[in-house]
Amino acid sequence: MAQTxxxxxxxxxxxxxxxxxxxxxxxxxxxxxxxxxxxxGQEILQYFASYGYWGIFGTGIxxxxxxxxxxxxxxxxxxxxxxxRPSLIFHYYCGKHLxxxxxxxxxxxxxxxxxxxxxxxxxxxxxxxxxxxxxxxxGLAIAVGISVWFGLKSLVDVIGKIGPLIVxxxxxxGIVGIVQNPAGIADGNALLPGLELTQASxxxxxxxxxxxxFCMLWLAAFLTALGKTARSRREAATGGLVGAIAFSVACIIxxxxxxxxxxxxxxxxxxxxxxxxxxxxxLASGISVMILAGIYTTAVPLLWTVSxxxxxxxxxxxKYLTIALAAAGTxxxxxxxxxxxxxxxxxxxGYVGILLLVLMLVKTGTRLVxxxxx
Length: 374
Description:
By secondary structure, the protein is mainly α. It contains 15 helices and no strands. Helix 2 crosses helix 13 and helix 7 packs antiparallel against helix 13. The longest helix is centred in the N-terminal third of the chain and has 39 residues. The two termini are 34 Å apart. The relative contact order is 0.22.
């Protein structure tokens, strides 16, 4: 019987790529990044549309390039290294001391991001349904806590399937906003200097860097853990590529839809509901459910990331910590208005994420120059 050489066995492993798994990984990335900020439109308004053409296309292309790099890096390094703890990805890029700083800082930021999801759910209930924000915030926390209780595998299965659907609907809504008022894009761009809109930074370029920065702190441990489950580097890299492209394109299209209606969506807590209401109240109600689903798909892995940093998935301590964090996040998330939470938590942490991006680029560049393996 012919023996398979180590080289042949290695090549066979590398070539293993399942389209279903690639799409599931891509869907998980998209679902994780959608969150309350994207799904409500508040994030796209502050980071993209508020800067006009440069914000949408300049920031969009910058985010597309950097997010693709980041997603592929985290996925492939996770697949190659199979870290005992996903948070060790920070030590890989930053060394012992800075790695420890990013490890704990990212956990704090990820937890605060969970509180933003709670605030987003509360804002939807308050602005669209006319109900108390406490019902939305507490309801989300309970649903997320129960989901995280069951562990990572169930999370990927659930959010990987919901994510692509939400992005398709969000893109469709952005297109509706453009089609209904195509001249509004140019008009909105001209009117921006006279509008008092909350922006993520002083210019579109720093806004784009900050956006990628905070997304990185979200994605680092989660994608490293997902990469560990990939059967090959190609499968991991393809999942990262498809997910990053899909999300970036969605940001650009939704940004154009908001810019076309900037005088109406500016100053609102849930801009996407304004676009939906133009079509009809029935669609607006359906979109409100989509927004809540988007918030849920991001809140679940955020809470899982924090709990898994301290205790192994599905252990009793992991489950008890999850419930405690969900309760604490609910209290914090219902204190400040949603738009203020987005601007405060995301922007500040985005600038810290830029430092991580620089360190990652240096590590990758050094690895390529020296032709070192992952």
